[in-house]
Amino acid sequence: MRTEAPTILDVARLAGVSTATVSRTLSSPDRVSEQTRVLVLDAVASTGYVANEMARNLRKKTSNSIGVLAPDLSNPFFSFIIAGIEQICGPRGFGVFVTEIGNTPNAKNKVVNMLASARADGFIVLDGMLDLSLLKARGNLEKRAPIVSACEWPSDETAPSVTVDNVGGSMQAVRHLAAMGHTKIGHITGPKENVLTAARIKGFKAGLESCGLTYDDSLIIEGDFSLDSGRLAAEKWLSMSDRPTAMFCASDREAFGFISRLAKAGVRVPEDVSIIGFDDIEVAAFFVPALTTVSQPRIDIGRAATQMLFGLIDGEIAPEDKRPQLDVKLVVRESTAPPSQDA
Amino acid sequence: MRTEAPTILDVARLAGVSTATVSRTLSSPDRVSEQTRVLVLDAVASTGYVANEMARNLRKKTSNSIGVLAPDLSNPFFSFIIAGIEQICGPRGFGVFVTEIGNTPNAKNKVVNMLASARADGFIVLDGMLDLSLLKARGNLEKRAPIVSACEWPSDETAPSVTVDNVGGSMQAVRHLAAMGHTKIGHITGPKENVLTAARIKGFKAGLESCGLTYDDSLIIEGDFSLDSGRLAAEKWLSMSDRPTAMFCASDREAFGFISRLAKAGVRVPEDVSIIGFDDIEVAAFFVPALTTVSQPRIDIGRAATQMLFGLIDGEIAPEDKRPQLDVKLVVRESTAPPSQDA
DNA sequence: TATGAGCATGTAAACGATTACATGCGGGCT
DNA sequence: AGCCCGCATGTAATCGTTTACATGCTCATA
Questions:
Q1: Residue B270's closest CA among B313, B334, B207, B202?
Q2: For site-directed labelling of A183, which of A2, A72, A256, B14 has its Cα 20 to 30 A away?
Q3: Residue B341 maps to a domain
Q4: Residues B102 and B146 both lie in one domain
Q5: A260 domain residue, yes or no
Q6: What is the DSSP string of B221-272?
Q7: Are the CB atoms for B247 and B187 separated by under 8 Å?
């Protein structure tokens, strides 16, 4: 019962050829003769040989894998994105490394190390907060492994990224509300420093403006995308003297938290308030009421980011293709309705 | 602007020592003199040297990473588990490779290759359907990289796994319902072939029995854990002539789908039916109504599985520790209530 | 019949680390 | 003084591939 893995040398000996021939047979079969090809392939089959990735990678100076840096792996929002990434990587034989970078002080170090240690040929970062500039400082690490941001994007406006039309989506959301007759529309934001937060606020304002409504600071409630921040926002809303008749939430989870808290207070959606979310996570369609929301193509984001990353790795991306923006679409369900008369 | 990574040789030259000394300085600093230590460390700092993982791994015959095999990465259920896995791996400097194995015919091959190619030092498999026996056949691959199952478990009852008390949790669920006065309790199952499905049905029956209730086949509706299967189940329920007053769902998502469909039909939860889920995913507490459910410690599952895997990798697991079963607990919220009088 | 092209294959040098073994040196012991 | 031990370091083998280069063979061409 041998537990040691067979090496290319074992195969070579069994087939009676050199290791070079075995390697060639496996990587470019048409460079060896028919005769030796079957010899080698038989030997491979009978030994169960599979090339050792570490040796191969060392020699070829690759790692055959990419890294995904997420601020918080437990956030289900990322699962579809990661699934999209894997859909592209899998068939290529690329491994997908996931890491949580959180916001610990040594997170930066972790990233620098990953980059520098040649563990990955490229990176997809899902966290706009990560300061990519320190990689430039540190010996131009980006040159070794390209980085593309997805969903969120770094402050450097030229870095490759695949994002979504956040301002357009937000505009659509408030225009939908306005079209239904709402004039007093509030917004629950994301966390203050987040780029998405800013973009969605921008879209919110633009939407208001395009409908002739004026922006009112007192209708903004700060959140952080989480369920619980939605709940907290609901408490603020309940305590308002002159409540907005519709709320645009920067995430579906905020919307759920909001609606949930309101339900406990006997406030009905959409009869008493209309709610719109952002993301269209799976459960949105099955919430009670089914949530009207701005749908992000999360799988596609993952796929597009990965494809771009491969383009960068292979050195074949034109500058103008480096910041694609995917479309979102408003999906209207049951959490929005015209404002009630007595409001 | 050098873009090539510095090697250990660059550091050695700069410090005026041999590569062996550099390596020693980095891996066991107390084996070199104070004097050369600072010399080397300075050189490391000024070159920005980070050891190449591929070379290190090749030499040490490790990969410094583990693989996670999931049936479906887009399923948010796994996100917390993966987060737990990363929490243990990160600090150890281990990489976490995620792969979707799906149920394509070549999935098995994919797994065999991952195992054999020395890409990972061990694996955590989240899919009970994966037939681990083929790894034994193929040259005893398990010997090279241990495998632990999490959540689900393989048919081989001796393989390492960390699971949860599925039958106990299910029992608790139905006992809670029975205690509230329900006598006609139904169950929406998971997919037929799944081990969890069987375990939860077993617990369901045991719970019934322990309360003196009798199991009735016609009260079982087949689902597959998904939101949509919950919706479908609701339609079956609506069409029943003599409806159960309470349903135990094999997953929270089934429960959401179920409740959501019922709401559209004007059926209220818990007034008209009581519902219990399983999993306690994040949104459960914020659903309307907040879902009573059996809570699984998903992060802990990930952590425990990883710790066990490391134990196996280091060869220090006693046989009796190989199949720990974590506790679940019923968390009672608002989707359950005593049956209404007119039922 | 040389000659060269082209093919199939072998030989051996990388890739960049770790580590067994060798070396030299200083100091404590008898 | 002689011996040995242990410390700090260096030398070089090794991990398992890929691939540049060398080799030898066959065949078409001049």
A1: B334
A2: A256
A3: no
A4: yes
A5: yes
A6: E---SSHHHHHHHHHHHHT-SS--SEEEESSHHHHHHHHHHHHHTT--TTTT
A7: yes
What CATH number does the domain containing B312 carry? 3.40.50.2300
A199 in the same domain as A171: yes
Is the CB of B8 less than 7 A from some atom of nucleic acid strand C?
yes
Tell me, yes or no, whether A180 and A283 share the same domain: yes
Asked if residue A331 is part of any domain, the answer here is no
> In this complex, do A140 and B1 lie within 8 Å of one another by their Cβ atoms?
yes
Q: Across the interface, do A97 and B100 touch by the CB < 8 Å criterion?
A: no
d(C-alpha A57, C-alpha B327), whole Å? 43
| Predicted pLDDT at B337 | 97
Give the count of domains, chain A.
3
Residues B117 and B150 in one domain: yes
**In 3D, which of A255, A269, A175 has the Cα closest to residue A223?**
A255
| Chain B environment of A63 (Cβ under 8 Å) | 53-54
pLDDT in tens, A118-150: 999 999 999 988 877 777 766 677 778 899 999
CB pairs under 8 A between A and B: 175
DSSP-derived secondary structure letter, A284: G
pLDDT of A303 over the 80 cut: yes
Which bases of chain D are under 7 A from a protein CB atom? 7-12, 14-20
If asked whether residues B260 and B144 sit together in one domain, one would say no
For A236-289, how does the pLDDT look when each residue is reduced to its tens digit (9 = 90+)? 999 999 999 999 999 999 999 999 999 999 999 999 999 999 999 999 999 999
Residue B237's nearest CA partner among B225, B223, B251, B250 is B223
**Chain-centre distance of CA A82, in angstroms?**
7
Domain containing residue A319: 62-164+299-326
Closest by Cα among B165, B164, B143, B160 to B307: B160
Closest chain A residue to the Cα of B65, Cα to Cα: A97
Q: Are residues B36 and B147 in the same domain?
A: no
Any idea what DSSP says for residue B200?
A: H
| 3-class DSSP assignment, residue B322 | coil
DSSP assigned state of B182: -
pLDDT digits (tens, 9 = 90+) for A207-229: 999 999 999 999 999 999 999 99
Residues B130 and B69: beta-carbon distance below 8 Å: yes
d(CA A31, CA A57): 22
Q: Please, what sign has the CA dihedral across residues B44, B47, B53, B56?
A: negative
Same domain for B113 and B69? yes
- Å between CA of A9 and C1' of D14: 15
* DSSP characters over B24-71: HHHH-GGGS-HHHHHHHHHHHHHHT----HHHHHHHHT--SEEEEEES
Same domain? A201 vs A318: no
Position B65 in a domain: yes
User: CB A100 to CB B80 under 8 A?
Assistant: no
pLDDT in tens, chain B (343 residues): 446 899 999 999 999 999 999 999 999 999 999 999 999 999 999 999 999 999 999 999 999 999 999 999 999 899 999 999 999 999 999 999 999 987 777 777 888 888 889 999 999 999 988 877 777 766 677 778 899 999 999 888 888 999 999 999 999 999 999 999 999 999 999 999 999 999 999 999 999 999 999 999 999 999 999 999 999 999 999 999 999 999 999 999 999 999 999 999 999 999 999 999 999 999 999 999 999 999 999 999 999 999 999 999 998 877 778 899 999 999 999 999 999 875 4
User: What residue is closest to D8 (Cα–C1')?
Assistant: B32
Which H/E stretch holds residue A326? strand A325-326
